[in-house]
Amino acid sequence: MLFVSQRKSQIYQILPVVDLLRLLWFYFNWCPFGEVEFKREIQVMNFEYKIENWVIDPPLVISREVMTAAEVLVVEVSMNGFKGRGESCPTAHYGETMDDVIAQLEQVRRLIMNDLSREKLLDIMEAGAARNALDCALWHLEAQILGKSVWEMANVEQKAKLITSFTIGMGSPDEMQAKAKKNNGYQIYKLKLGGNEDVARVRAVRNVVGDARIFVDINEGWNMDQLITYAPQLADLGVEMIEQPLPAHQDDALIGYLGPLPLAADESCHTRKSLAHIQGRYQVINIKLDKTGGLTEGLHLAREARAMGLELMVGCMGGTSLAMAPAYVIGTLCKVVDLDAPLILKEDRNPGLRYYGSEIYCFDSTVWA
Fold first, then answer.
1. How many domains does the chain have?
2. Taking the mean position of all CA atoms in its chain, how far away is CA 222?
3. Which residues contact 344 (CB under 8 A, 6 or more apart)?
4. Strands 188-192, 311-314: parallel, antiparallel or unpaired by DSSP?
5. Do β-strands 263-265 and 239-243 pair in parallel, antiparallel, or remain unpaired?
6. Is residue 146 part of a domain?
7. Contact (Cβ atoms closer than 8 angstroms) between residue 240 and residue 213
8. How far is residue 18's CA from residue 138's CA, in Å, rounded to a whole number?
9. Helix 129-146 vs helix 98-107: angle between axes, to the nearest 10 degrees?
């Protein structure tokens, strides 16, 4: 059925009824009237996803695995000529497979294509890679429809650049020293540890990088005795922080621990629901959007954690500049930034973020929102 208008013997086909209704919905839900803005929700008319593989070169070794590639999920949502994109990196350590992540998206496909806001997404999807990619795509789409920047939408002050750490994977002391020599000149280094030679590993790198800042990431690879033994020695070597020393399910042992270095929760902290457990065990939280399930929850987590007196760090599971851009927004709120994933890829997405040594320059619309 069509609305038809006749004027001077000419017939003008205006719009199908369904398209007219959609136009009216968009007008009354998105267009501001003076001082009043009506409720805003995104009606996504198209939803697609794809899987991409990005080679990590050389492979990154951590305490529990060797990472050779980043298998990422890219979600695209579009409406009225606007398109939003988001990227995530499913993590086997958290029980995620690409098939499971895709299944989660398919379960909400009908909602995505009809009536879905980012806040509603928090209620209908679990935190994780699937929600992250979709949430970030919705941020990108909404920014374009509203004609606003993500910074305005998030109420976060934009920073022209951030200083990121550079990651050196776990190896023998000589191997890690060689990697440090090859990548000398960064302002901050994150060293992957998790074994009996950890103090020697840090000493070997310190001998190369001079006064550069260092923190270490154990990836749950120590026990409590190792933490008590190694922490003072690492402090003497100028290490600033220890990330996730114990397995997440064993970190009750940290209650009452008073060591020389602050402890950061990574595997132990996912969303705001984790914060009650964090208190009394850690002083810093590592916010990763693949754990929080997107920028929306990431911002909520950052603000609540900071209100509790916790320091903030932003990190990533892996991926390209498309995944780093929304994390950059969180990074502006953080004391520690660890968004070097594109630097360890054989190649990054083009266009991508601009890295100059330790400096990451803010994304523009060619990369993300």
1. 3
2. 25
3. 56, 57, 60, 167
4. unpaired
5. parallel
6. yes
7. yes
8. 23
9. 50
Q: CA 267 to CA 48: how far, in whole Å?
A: 30
Q: Answer whether residue 98 is part of any domain.
A: yes
Same domain, 253 and 117: no
pLDDT digits (tens, 9 = 90+) for 123-172: 999 999 999 999 999 999 999 999 999 999 999 999 999 999 999 999 99
Instruction: Supply 350's token pair.
Output: 């083009």
Q: Which of 192, 273, 335, 346 is catalytic?
A: 192
Distance CA 131, CA 86 (A): 10
Measured N-to-C along each axis, helices 198-209 and 173-182 cross at an angle, to the nearest 10 degrees, of 30
Q: Which is catalytic among the residues 179, 190, 288, 291?
A: 288
* pTM for the full predicted model: 0.88
Let me know whether 63 and 178 are in one domain.
no
Residue in this structure with the two tokens 């601009």, named with its chain if needed: 354
pLDDT tens sequence across 347-367? 999 999 999 999 999 999 999
**Cis (ω within 30 of 0) for the bond into 58?**
yes
Q: How many residues does the chain have?
A: 369
Residues 6 and 50 placed together within one structural domain of the fold? no
What are the phi and psi torsion angles at 278 (to 5°)? -65, -40
Asked whether the beta carbons of 199 and 233 are under 8 A apart, the reply is: yes
Cis peptide before 351 (omega within 30 of 0): yes
Relative orientation angle of helices 198-209 and 224-236, to the nearest 10 degrees: 20
Measure the CA angle with vertex 117, ends 111 and 119; round to 5°.
Answer: 120
Amino acid at 344: I
Q: What is the pLDDT of residue 47?
A: 87
In a shared domain, residues 281 and 331? yes
Please give the Cα distance from 149 to 188 (Å, whole number).
30
Residue 192 is a catalytic residue: yes
